[in-house]
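Weekend entry, working from home. Most of the wet-lab plans are on hold until the incubator is repaired, so I used the time to fold the two sequences that have been sitting in the queue since the last round of cloning. Logging both here for the record. First:
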Amino acid sequence: SGTRANMFAALLIPLYYLYIINSYRIRIYLFVLAIVFITLTMNFVLTNLLSSSEFSNSVKLGHFYSYIEYFKNNPLFFFFGSGAGSYFYSHGVSDYVLNTELVFLDLIRYIGIINTVLFYIVILYPIRKIYYKSNIIAFSYFIYIIVAMTNPLLISSTGFLAISFAYLFAYSKDKNAPN
């Protein structure tokens, strides 16, 4: 899909790869270039991509405020969740919804904050082992998790496929390693 987060990740991963394959001197130049680019584009990003007047952002803000209201009215749901398949009223779309693009808050609503934190620990656990095998794959997986927090990718077949791949990659033996 062509969401902003996916497009940003599609740019970020090759840039990181260029960064890690180059020498220390070129890394410094790339880092300085990135800082200059971020500084020059920050105003555009803040005014255009994160504007509350932009439709997609206004819907997400409506979802966010609805979640605040939902958890304020149902504090036990914040800790224990209200179950998978539960729905709530969102001002973002002025209707009842099962899920939103705010996956972290969806998970809290489904399974509670404690289980959500445990879920993210399970998701992030293999990153260190993956990093020792391939830091570009570890970085890509981490970026996927960040993107999945803003799009309904994590709690789907795509998300569970990515998590399965991460564990498979982290814990599979290298065929070229000595016994």
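Second, folded right after the first finished:
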Amino acid sequence: MSVEVVSYRLTYRGKPAGTQVIKTEVVGKVRRMEARAAFQGPLGNATVLQRSRSSAQEHHSLGFREETQERDGRRVFDVSFDARSGLVKATTGPKDVATAPYIRPYRDPLSLLGEVRELAGAGAYGVAMLGKDVTVQAAGEVDLRTALGERRAWAYLLHPGGSVVYVDTAPPHTILKLVQRLPEGSLESLLVSVASEPSLEGFGDDDAGGKRGQQRRRGRRRPRRRKRG
């Protein structure tokens, strides 16, 4: 399957604030997502790269990583969900590691967006996330003007936080607009274009890829030794 590439322009309190690109690819039973935001103007200059691996069917997170690059340096936040050990491990540096019991099907910020795209206007429900759980509440349908023309969208409210996600009612249910509430105003992501590319780079071996690799290794035949006369 090809990679879906959706581009957005960012505005903060009505002023240009940068760009964002969200890429999505399904490999076997794993959904891989990458979101790259380049902020400028009223929000300062920074680049935020997020990568997520999650279940394509059940949406729980398998791993999440966020890298923030600013003038004063680079910050990394990495979370792994290990079902075998029953632990969630969060890392911000070699000496800064925290663990918690892996007892719930946690989502990460990107896998949550992937799940919202598949709700088809469904009502309120709760989502387990690290830190605070989130309630996703359907708020009806609205008409939106986008770069691709007039679109009908489902609106979903996220609590706490008050963010709003607008999802195209037509397949493949692209996110048309995202509004995030910040302390002094709203950050809006507005759809610019939808494209595709052949592959999503930058991810390590995922579950599907690892299994394929094991299958290939198991499938290799050893050369036969010649019998000596």
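Plan for Monday: verify the second prediction. Helices lie at 109-116, 207-219.
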